[in-house]
Amino acid sequence: MHSYAQSTLGNNIQFKKRTFIYKTADKVPINADLFQTIEDSSLRPVIIWIHGGALIFGSRTGLPEEQMKFYLKAGYSVVSIDYRLAPETKLPEIVNDVKDAIRWVRVHGRDSLQIDSTKIFVIGQSGGAYLALMSGYVLKNPPRGIVSFYGYGDIVSDWYSKPDSFYRTKTLISADKASKLIYDSSITSASFNRVDLYLYSRQNGLWPFLVSGHDPVKEAEWFNSYCPLKNINGNYPPVLLIHGDKDTDVPFEQSVLMDRELELKNINHKFIKMQDYGHAFDQSGGGLSNPDLYKVFTEITLFLKALNDNGR
Questions:
Q1: For the purposes of burial, counting CB atoms within 10 Å of the CB of 282, is it exposed (0-12), middle (13-18) or buried (19 or more)?
Q2: Distance (Å, rounded) from C-alpha 63 to C-alpha 244?
Q3: What's the helix, strand, coil split of the chain in %, to 5?
Q4: Residue 141 belongs to what domain range?
């Protein structure tokens, strides 16, 4: 099933948007938006875009339009996916949604989606970047490359499992207020209003427990398979890490650690360090009219082109 919409991309280049149900789980349809140019009938490589929101809020509609257009202009189709959100759905099933989305693109790419399903790349922001990094090892056939915007590879260390000093300076969210933001059944999107549930989890060091249902202290080993940092192997795809060194949400160190581990495992990768930029800089830093951000997105397309031309 899909719906269809059509618009115009700069320079009178038309593009189309089709919305598919890529999976149904817990009786809930999970959607993906496919963006493609109209004038190009060739099968293009595809970017699967995964939204952020700490796995707690956000949706596929969070893909900034100018970023989508940038990728289309660079020669890609773009698929923006939903996935079930925590805490209504726990981490293993969230990861399964991402795996199933990538498999769906691979299986239906040539026929239903009209894309080159042999060239799949995954780009994620924050929590979406964490899921993107997960995709590098939870699939037998991982994506050809991963781009991580301010992502993380360790979900059990102090930054997530202990009260956060930065968030403790904000208005404290009560347990009662947080509990009222949790639904009785699975959901695949939530507005920014649900950020208070995230704030509560960070203020009290409860994020790992909230999203997984497991205690990061008493059951630390359970988290090992959900930490990309601990699962980089020889089959791991090339990675582009992008992170601001003034990030007050996801520590810059998380990308530093991933960079080190990728280097140790001899994985093709690059680390773009955004000096004096904070979290979500690509959505709050003036957009692509900002020369620094335009340069970053140019680097992304160069990174992906090299993988397109040469494989890994």
A1: buried
A2: 19
A3: 40, 25, 35
A4: 2-156+223-310
Size (the chain), residues: 312
Token pair for 196: 């208070």
Query: d(Cα 90, Cα 85) in Å, to the nearest integer?
Result: 8
User: Model pTM?
Assistant: 0.95
Q: Residues near 209 by Cβ (< 8 Å), separated by ≥ 6?
A: 215, 216
| Contact predicate 46/77, CB 8 Å | yes
Contact 164, 202 (CB under 8 A): yes
Whether 7 is covered by a domain: the verdict is: yes
Within a domain: 49: yes
The percentage of the chain sitting over the pLDDT mark of 90, rounded to a whole number, equals: 90
Q: State the total domains in the chain.
A: 1
CATH number at residue 241: 3.40.50.1820
Q: Is residue 210 part of a domain?
A: no
Q: What is the pLDDT of residue 311?
A: 66
Q: What does pLDDT average to over the chain?
A: 94
Q: What is the pLDDT of residues 11-54, one digit of tens each?
A: 456 789 999 999 999 999 999 999 999 877 789 999 999 999 99
Chain centre to alpha carbon of residue 149: 8
Write out the two tokens for 13.
């280049």
**35 part of a folded domain:** yes
What is the per-residue pLDDT for 273?
A: 98
